[in-house]
């Protein structure tokens, strides 16, 4: 007995000191959060009902409407949005980074703002302006004022693609601008000294260097367009234009879960295949060394007489994709009729008591208990998800960095980035498959706030881990090593050294996660219930029922919260570790 009692504690201490327990626990957590839902949704489609669903979706008379037509629309939308984003984002990046256009900082700021605005905000603004009378109800601003709007411009693929390009091009701009900044002036000057003209320099020097960034921007914007639910739902569903995301939503909403799970797996396959192909193209290219020891100068090409015209074009793009949608939403939330956006304004849709003739007697949003509950739920969801995601991301990043090269670190790294390949709405469907029914003694979580938190935290893991890695990269390893030599344990080092030094960067990353959750619709649209309302879903419901003023007012509330948090995060990131700045 003495031998056993002395052996057990020492063996436990050795196990803890070996550093195996924490990575193993993290692998188990990530497996439950990421692998289990995806495995469960796959197993759900292998039952007799699931096999019948596969047949109905792929090889039945219904397959054209269930799979092939939505797939075609999704592919057209994805490639169209990716192409448009490359054109707009690439143009702005070239203009800001490689030319002497005036107001580069202003243009750079305007180029990043559209991604902060929810995609459904732009879709609602488009409908307020361009909606025609095809479906009945109130027409948009332009048709009411005598301008006939064709169906293809009011509904369907074209307006959906335009809205998504306006939303995602800032993502392409950010990626391409970063790549163009790495093109050293010595490369361009060498080409000029050899007598190369501007087109030759562009296609022979600049374009090959930034091609990986172009492919990355195209793949990310394609994946974003394929996974987006809000814009196709608001601008496509009224005319029965289905994409894979809207068709998936329809199947789950009508109780056809197995068919919905099949569509979710197919949507995951489409998105992952395109991202994998993009990665293979980039990894198979010849590498170019662009950073040398000669400094980081960027060669700016003179525009001459085109400086101000191109500046005007860039400002117009920024205004049309940021300022105009916000102004339209604000005016619509005050106007009793969409056709008279700038007259007879009223605050009824904001603070009206209800019971009158306006809006069928409904009270304003700030007198509606459902909206107040949704506002509180949204803020609470954003805060809880931001906290849990960033803490888990820091733990994962710390373990991956500390055990770099080991099998556990490799497994953690691969599992943590799996959600990046899964569209939001498909990820939500996987969580319904896993938690929609009781699991042993555990009750069903469907419709609970806890399920929203768990699903959102898991889907944000790739961002959290990447943020954690960047924060840890700013902390010298010598500090922790000194603490280790003095006998400080892991928890002591984490709370006394790592966490205090990383807190500001983690806080900035947490705010960005908060923003993503406040504006997200694709993830919560399947997990939303009357007991757990969130602002984005309430706005979508109002828009679907034709109460555009209420929907626009709620969207403005979301926008204000997102912009305030985004600017706060930007300010914090600029102040991270001031002692490292010269």
Describe the structure.
This protein has 582 residues and is an all-alpha fold. The protein folds into 2 domains: 67-286 and 297-332, MetI-like fold, CATH 1.10.3720.10; 368-582, MetI-like (MetI-like fold, Orthogonal Bundle). 70% of the residues lie in helices and 0% in strands. The longest helix has 36 residues, at 63-98. It starts with a helix and ends in an 8-residue tail after the last helix.
Structure summarized in a few sentences:
With about 575 residues, the protein is mainly α. It has 25 helices and no strands.
For the record, the count of structural domains works out to 2
Strand content: under 5%
| CATH topology tier name of the largest domain | MetI-like fold
Helix content: over 70%
Total DSSP E strands: 0
- In CATH, the homologous superfamily of the largest domain goes by the name MetI-like
The CATH class label of the largest domain is Mainly Alpha
Count of runs of 4 or more consecutive helical residues: 25
In this structure, how is the largest beta sheet organized? none
**Termini gap:** 63 Å
Low-pLDDT segments: 1-9, 287-296, 576-582
CATH architecture of the largest domain: Orthogonal Bundle
Shape, principal axes of CA atoms = globular
Structural class: mainly alpha
Secondary-structure element order, N to C: HHHHHHHHHHHHHHHHHHHHHHHHH
* Cα Rg: 26 Å
Secondary-structure blueprint of this entry?
Elements: H1 2-17, H2 21-44, H3 48-58, H4 63-98, H5 104-112, H6 119-130, H7 141-144, H8 151-154, H9 157-180, H10 185-193, H11 198-227, H12 230-235, H13 244-253, H14 257-283, H15 307-334, H16 348-351, H17 369-402, H18 407-416, H19 424-435, H20 449-459, H21 461-472, H22 477-485, H23 490-519, H24 535-544, H25 548-574
Helix pairs in contact: 2-18, 2-19, 3-4, 3-14, 4-5, 4-9, 4-11, 6-9, 6-15, 6-25, 9-11, 10-11, 11-14, 13-14, 14-19, 15-25, 17-18, 17-20, 17-21, 17-23, 21-23, 22-23, 23-25, 24-25
